[in-house]
Predict the structure.
Amino acid sequence: MPNIDAMTARQIATEVAAGGLSATEVARSALDAIQAREPKVQAFVQVTQELALDAAARIDDARAAGEALPPLAGVPLVVKDNMNLKGTRTTCASRMLETYESPYTATCVQRMLAAGCIPVGKANMDEFAFGSSTDSSAFHPTNNPWNLDCVPGGSSGGSAAAVAAGMAALSLGSDTGGSIRQPAAFCGVVGMKPTYGAVSRYGVVAFGSSLDQVGPFGRSVEDVALAMDALVAGGRDPFDSTSQDVAPRFAEALDAGVAGKRVGIIPALMEAEGLTPEVRRGVERAASALEDAGATLIEVDLPHLDAAIAAYYVIGPAEAFSNLARFDGIRYGYQEPGCSTLAAQSSLSRAHGFGTEAKRRQMLGAYLLSSGVYDRYYYAAQKARTLITEDYARAFEQVDVILMPAAPRTAFKHGEISDPTQMYLSDMYTISINIAGNGGITVPVGLGEETGLPVGAQLVAPAFKDERLISFGAAVERACEPLGVPRAVSAEGGLL
Ligand code: GLN
């Protein structure tokens, strides 16, 4: 009998299409794995057993009726809890939205369901996606499946941990400053943030509207390619004005190879303070793998990269302040009982509905947009954004992709980083890519020699050339030992 947790999405879909496994068997086995492993990992805020079994039954009926199955039929999927899925609550891991019922299904989720995925649950996250550890969830922390004392990264920590722990083959996350790529690195899975505008955000709760992008997690580059094909199938979404037409050619790119291609390395990033030797060595291994596959390494410079974190922590909070104004206990969100005025209703609902980091970001945003301050910070941040975007465009005149770390270190322990500015540095390698709007992918390159925890390398491509992330990512992956499901959780459940 196959072991579901060791199967990729492609293997599951192939077996289901061939009749070797029914979708219902797969769904039950994923739910079993969740039951057995979830007490340790706590990746979910909600397990959607009924939705999963219903979707699986529909696939099995379609097969019995002789219908052709969609490409990801029977693949268990986890959805970050800032994405609407009808029949579930969408909480953003916040008291503010604890009881909010999804009125409709987000386009990204709908497209995965149309591709045949079985929704097994909603994933834990940092509250409203502010964070890099998932510890700011209002409900509970999530544990890294490789070491349960460590964080899974964030903010899409539940989505990354669920896939790493073999509780689902695919998951969706959102990435505003690194929230897919950093947890993918911490949990040893593949995570991709496509170019801004490649995937619809309709139905995804907004954080920083000029930065937010949705993308998939999987245990292989191929699975992420298949998920990307599903996410862009159907073309641009008229409900998200930033969404663009992207050809579903990701799976095709898997075998494109890298011979004769140029890979950019940024020496300053490989020498950066805070980068641990084991992560540096992991990225160097990825560089050698690409060279062995026929690519040439070329040094490039992004002279304004130093400004990226500062610019992000102006633009991100400013946009978040504006986006989160709707959660006032009147239009949306937690409603403080017993208030006699509208002003009290709004301020007390916000005071008690939001956690500390969500408040910090909004207060920062309110200040940064206030008159007199705006020019000094917001305007300056926008200028820095233009310079960083131009830096990337110039670098991509010389190279096809850029290779760098996904995070400066491997997963840290719960509570180890309490200073918010230290936490913000977790994203030093991912943030500039959101600022410029390009796509990036994290590919695991092994376990660190010192910590024994997963190390991820990040590839960045020019805007709307995201298929290169798949071809270069696949070349890196081919040279690395697969990590498998970590021992801390693999002993329990998951067997068909
Ligand atoms: N960690 C970053 C932040 O706290 C990025 C979060 C994200 O991408 N959603 O803002």
Observations:
- The chain has two domains: 9-301+393-493, 305-382.
